[in-house]
């Protein structure tokens, strides 16, 4: 039997019977929390009713339970999106985002990161697994920017949850902080990973030290499938594009 706190959404939707509605209204008179949640849902009844009537795959009860348990403006916005967009696509995208986040955690050891923020005295972490993964990838795209002379190759692998990527970056000097940004065909932008470039740089032709000669290999992940990707950008934290790689 749900508590009175958990019936706010059902009350807003108008699906309580007379006895339940009377009991909730008595509770509402002395409960500031429920009154606040009900105010947030004011005017939402038609939209909620439309959502409840939508045919689909059974996700509506779960949404209804979330509404009853934790109604908020943020959740209300999500419900509006559910009505406006196809729910199947919305659920798939949400699942992919969670999977991609998990993949980033798992892929963490694959990333090669200069942890000192750009000083020559810092420590460089070299991740051989990232390079090994990159070399096994069959789908690779490369580009060199004519103005910055920075070269990048992005290796891609399709996953059930989206795309795994490994970046090979060359001829870039620091100190810089950069990101690998995926730009989808629908215009959405997703940061796949970020890192620091030390003073000595990565993949510098004719460099005097081995660490400067080596390219950077860094892993990333995103919810989009390879055929949904338009291009990749390597950009600094200040917004300067170093190189773009078309997918």
From TrEMBL:
Keywords associated with the record: Membrane, Transcription, Transcription regulation, Transmembrane, Transmembrane helix
Domain of life: Bacteria
Gene3D superfamilies referenced in this protein's UniProt entry, alphabetically: Anti-sigma factor, zinc-finger domain
A Pfam family reported for this protein in Swiss-Prot or TrEMBL: zf-HC2
The Putative zinc-finger domain, residue ranges: 8-35
Transmembrane segments: 95-115
Protein name from the UniProt record: Zf-HC2 domain-containing protein
Organism: Streptomyces dangxiongensis
């Amino acid at each position: 039997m749900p508590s009175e706190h958990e019936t706010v959404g059902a009350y807003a939707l108008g699906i309580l019977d007379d006895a339940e509605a009377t009991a909730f209204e008595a509770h509402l008179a002395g409960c500031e929390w429920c009154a606040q949640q009900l105010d947030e849902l004011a005017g939402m009844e038609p939209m909620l009713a439309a959502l409840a009537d939508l045919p689909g795959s059974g996700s509506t009860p779960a949404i209804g339970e979330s509404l009853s348990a934790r109604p908020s403006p943020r959740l209300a916005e999500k419900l509006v999106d559910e009505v406006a967009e196809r729910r199947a696509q919305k659920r798939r995208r949400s699942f992919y985002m969670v999977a991609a986040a998990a993949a980033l955690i798992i892929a963490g050891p694959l990333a090669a990161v200069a942890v000192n923020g750009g000083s020559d005295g810092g420590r460089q972490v070299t991740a051989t697994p990232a390079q090994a993964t990159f070399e096994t990838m069959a789908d690779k795209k490369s580009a060199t920017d004519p103005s910055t002379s920075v070269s990048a190759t992005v290796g891609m692998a399709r996953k059930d949850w989206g795309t795994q990527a490994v970046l090979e970056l060359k001829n870039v000097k620091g100190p810089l902080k950069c990101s690998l940004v995926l730009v989808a065909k629908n215009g959405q932008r997703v940061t796949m990973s970020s890192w620091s470039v030390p003073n000595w740089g990565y993949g510098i032709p004719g460099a005097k030290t081995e660490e400067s000669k080596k390219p950077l290999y860094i892993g990333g992940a995103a919810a989009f499938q390879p055929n949904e990707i338009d291009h990749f950008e390597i950009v600094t934290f200040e917004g300067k594009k170093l190189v773009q790689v078309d997918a």
